[in-house]
Amino acid sequence: FWVVPAVEVKIEVVIPEKERSKEEMSPNGKASPLIYKVNGTARHYHLEEHPIASNPYHNPKDMVEASVCHVKDLENGQMREVDLGCGKALLIKESGEFHAVGHKCPHYGAPLVKGVLSKGRVRCPWHGACFNIGTGDIEDFPGLDSLPRFQVKIEKEKVYIRASKQALQTQRRTKMMAKCISLSNYNLSSTNVLIIGAGAAGLVCAETLRQEGFSDRIVMCTMDRHLPYDRPKLSKSMDSHPEQIALRPKEFFCTYDIEVLTETQVAAVDVKSKIAVFKDGFKMEYNKLLIATGNMPKTLSCKGREIENVFNIRTPEDANRVVKLATSKNVVIVGASFLGMEVAAYLAERAHSVSLVELEHVPFKKFFGERVGRAVMKMFENNRVKFYMQTEVSELREQEGKLKEVVLKSGKVLRADVCVVGVGAVPATGFLKQSGINIDSKGFIVVNKMMQTNVPGVFAAGDAVTFPLALRNNKKVNVPHWQMAHMHGRIAALNMLAHGTEISTVPYLWTAMFGKSIRYAGHGEGFDDVVIQGDLDDLKFVAFYTKSDEVVAVASINYDPIVSKVAEVLAAGRTIRKRDVDTVIFLSFRTGDMSWLTGKGS
């Protein structure tokens, strides 16, 4: 396996101003050292004795200052994108105060001026990431970086912004992080924190620990051959190379002493001895453990499933190979899952033909409902995708060792040069069966609101867990969303440090097909009705999913930022009733009025 090199360094930590006012300050006003215990041994690090600067760039030549508007140009609750000459900023007025931060979401570059402002934070209109308007810090996901924050001053009724040219150009800021004090105190077989899995949950956990000043050894291990990457792009942008979708460059892991063991698999965990046993026999002792192994794709059980050119999309290499083989060829996709539908959309213009096989009579029926599912299906059919519904594969046939035909139980025979299987997934938790960690009947790891398992010091996060969802009265649910994996990782890290933080985020997901994005917030499992506003045929609509008269989820196409607005309503603890959809809720979205968000209750 490969280990990202770590270097013995002197600790350099800057704690945000709000944290410096807490109990770590000594009576004389100087910072006292914080202490973490590793296997009974105290490790010390010292905070720097000055607060974080309001702007990290100190070169005067890099700074620009400009008058951007009159103080009366913005009302409370308004945002405006302003140009400083060498870049733009987002100017915000809330509760009589002006704030200025980066104007683009660091995740995929969405214009935040089109997002939702509520109670001191702005939510991205595309994928739901949230940022504190006072600090720029990311507070909900997806994405890893925060927004740059700029200085605002008022002179003679005019609003001025002072900003770094570099920050205006990059539009992102990585939070200050600690580094490991000394790796010389450890041998290869011992770590303070072991993270099994290097997806979004694992990476955010490691980054959060460093952001919170944790300065001991962190080891991540993954079966993948790559450093953490943007996994949703495997089906949305299939020809992306690993370096193009990497979440962080190799240098990042070196700088912050986050070690990554690639192409390694944990075979068992001994929770009593706090030892992880790897498949090759290597053993590693840990103090805290995060299990974030995600899911494993289901495979076909029919005859011929081992034939060449039949794929599950798990890695960038899988996706790249499928694109290469599918170009101008016949493709059969089994399963109208998110992965299956995204792959079909991506290949439709590249392949000679794309056929999709599905057991249900409408794609996405259980998730989006029949009416929305039919509208999406029509969009696919208009783009040359052929559906074979209410059937499944009975056999895969080969010629000279390679796939030639897909035989359906209906008797239909489809020509196929490539087959992509997207029939669901199961949690990758088989190695935990004898560990004593609580696993439910479906194989999911059971955790509480702090992402803790039943075993002290063992946490779990991401697609492989069930956790109490506040939005649904703390019902234990599995939410295999990219955004949720980020938040799981953060909550787990905070509670490794005994913060006592509970998860309360609203699930948010998106999918992109044929240039159309479906956005979704909430948890609609078991919905009994769908209230639709807009035009399904024109693919410009919003759908409210209700259960017992309460809105539990929302989906939309071409109706931004309505899903982000509903997510903010739900995050504020508000209940949206079915009767409100046509009146108060919809009207307030059309006018942009968020005043009814204040307070709690229905």
Automatic annotation (TrEMBL):
It holds the Pfam family Rieske. It comes from the Eukaryota. Residues 66-161 form the Rieske domain. GO terms for biological process: execution phase of apoptosis. One of its GO terms (cellular component) is mitochondrion. Keywords: 2Fe-2S, Apoptosis, Electron transport, FAD, Flavoprotein, Iron, Iron-sulfur, Metal-binding, Mitochondrion, Oxidoreductase, Transport. Its main location: mitochondrion. Gene3D superfamilies: 3.30.390.30, FAD/NAD(P)-binding domain, Rieske [2Fe-2S] iron-sulphur domain. It is found in: Mitochondrion. PANTHER family: APOPTOSIS-INDUCING FACTOR 1 (PTHR43557), APOPTOSIS-INDUCING FACTOR 3 (PTHR43557:SF8). Induces apoptosis through a caspase dependent pathway. Reduces mitochondrial membrane potential. This is Apoptosis-inducing factor 3.
